[in-house]
Amino acid sequence: MLNFIFRRLLSAIPTLLILIGLAFCLIRVAPGGPFDGEKQLPAEIEANLRAAYHLDEPLYRQFGRYLVNLAHGDFGPSFQYRDFSVTELIRSGFPVSLRLGGLAMLLALLLGVTAGSIAALNQNSTTDYSVMATTMLGISIPNFVVAPLLILIFAVGLRWLPAGGYGGGAPQYLLMPVIALALPQVAYIARLTRGSMIEVLRSPFIRTARAQGLSLPRIIVLHALKPALLPVVSYLGPATAAVITGSVVIEQIFGIPGLGRYFVQGALNRDYTLVMGVVVFYGTLIIAFNFFVDLVYGWLDPRVRL
């Protein structure tokens, strides 16, 4: 197992370096600069600003300097938020995005696995068709359409929930954003669980368990669920990272102060260090989630370690 972990760690390092290099080059190829605005700065002031942020150096020296600072956990200063470093901005915004995405994935996992298992146990029945039709609807409707509908129904129409804001993370403020983020993932997880569960239920070891007189709930929980979750586990890594990093639109719709707003503002203002910091942070997060999924997959299926 240690050899398996070591191999996965080694493969993650060059992936992260390639990501940093591509993001560094692409953000500088984009038109505009961090000091462009409606009012043109005098040439002397702009030159002093570029020198202060080392933007007057060749790109290879800027990249080397960035890697050295990154190795010390320093994402650099923000060009637009002058009183804050990028590290401070990430530290303030990420816990909100993490809480929102984490709750959404937890809800999606619970509902998706349950719905997929019920559909598999009632294959080709009305229940199966109903669950699959509902999941197809969840896949087809994007969350930026679901979110305004939830606001229209539960905030404007019924007045049960607030239309936006964070409220310090109170449940009534998180309920609609979490549901809007979770619905597409519920659909994907349910379909994956159904297909995998049907295949597992037809396996010889399940027939043996039934022949021994074990009850169906016991067979599902003790024997079928673990191998049936392998495709779901493979999907959870990138899906969790995608939900956490892709909550930008939901955060904007509900006015939630997550990390997404900094990324949007940084991209609009050509804030190189802020955009780079968010991209590298999210890239590291995705690699870490995939690494964790590899470990869980290796635990569920020992053949993967080979």
Task: Tell me about this structure.
The chain is an all-alpha fold and 306 residues long. It has a domain at 92-256: MetI-like (MetI-like fold). Helix content is 75%, strand content 0%. It has helices spanning 2-29, 43-52, 59-71, 86-121, 126-140, 143-157, 171-201, 204-211, 216-228, 230-245, 248-254, 259-268, 272-300. Helix 4 (86-121) runs antiparallel to helix 10, helix 11 packs across helix 12 (259-268) and helix 12 packs across helix 13.
Question: Summary?
Answer:
The protein contains 13 helices and no strands.
Number of helices: 13
Order of helices and strands: HHHHHHHHHHHHH
The description of the largest β-sheet is:
none
What is the CA-based Rg, rounded? 24 Å
Strand content: under 5%
Q: Mind telling me which CATH architecture of the domain at 92-256 this is? A: Orthogonal Bundle
Detail the poorly predicted runs. Answer: none
Instruction: Please tell me the overall pLDDT.
Output: 80
What's the number of extended β-strand segments?
A: 0
Assign the CATH topology of the domain at 92-256: MetI-like fold
Q: Kindly report the name of the CATH homologous superfamily of the domain at 92-256.
A: MetI-like
Distance between the termini: 9 Å
- Specify the helix fraction band: over 70%
Highest-level CATH class of the domain at 92-256: Mainly Alpha
The coarse overall form would be: flat
Determine the structural class based on helices, strands and strand pairing: mainly alpha
